Amino acid sequence: MEIITPTKNKLDKPVAFIQPNEQTGNVVKKALMDFFMEVTLLSRFTIRFFKQVFLPPYELKELLKQCYVIGYKSLPLVGITGFIMGVVLTIQSRPTLAQFGAESWLPAMVGISIIREIGPVITALICAGKVGSGIGAELASMKVTEQIDAMEVSGINPFKYLVVTRILATTIMLPILVIVSDAIALGGSLLAVNIKADVSFNLFFGNVFEKLVFMDVIPAVIKTFFFGFAIGLIGCFKGYNSNKGTEGVGESANSSVVYASLLIFIMDMIAVQITSLFS
To answer: What is the pTM of this model?
Structure first.
């Protein structure tokens, strides 16, 4: 370590300064080590999930409970978000299409945009904020209060009961939430279209489904399973491995949202690239 000539502060104590280049290098090195350590732990956690998911006992009761909590209790938020999404997208798109005399394309454009991209991504982000943070905080709180250790002592597999059920629930319920959100968004779009025009229900949805093709719907549905898996995996990983006491509860909830949201964008980018190869 290169040391610059010490200076003295008000207390007449020598103060040593580290060269900026060396200090920056140490920070980058530590950040890279933390990143690769986190990736390694997450990979081991994922492998453990796939090992446990096929082994008995199957906690069906807990799985159904988590599906209810994650799916049914998220419907109001997802529905309101979808409705606003459909209305705003329609109102914002109409003036641009009107300039080219293409207002008749508005239902098809909005429908394709919502079903292919906006609906799945926005709904996944909403669930990452609500569900991911809830799972992270819940499991971190159980870790801090030693409830997970108590489950191990009583002969219950906490990983099977707490982690596997929640990851499966998010994987199953997110595609359903996306489909509901898309339907409500199209309903909101129909309402917005009728603000300045008179378009019937059959005409609007006829235009929407006339332009939809196989490669618009199926890839959009498939990637929602991966989004749900990512939300559940990150939330459980951060909560289950929390080890900073009560401070770790808030940190687990916050980091679950951040990492899950980032992973959703990365997976969506990969899905778009794969879909473009077959379109």
So the answer is: 0.86
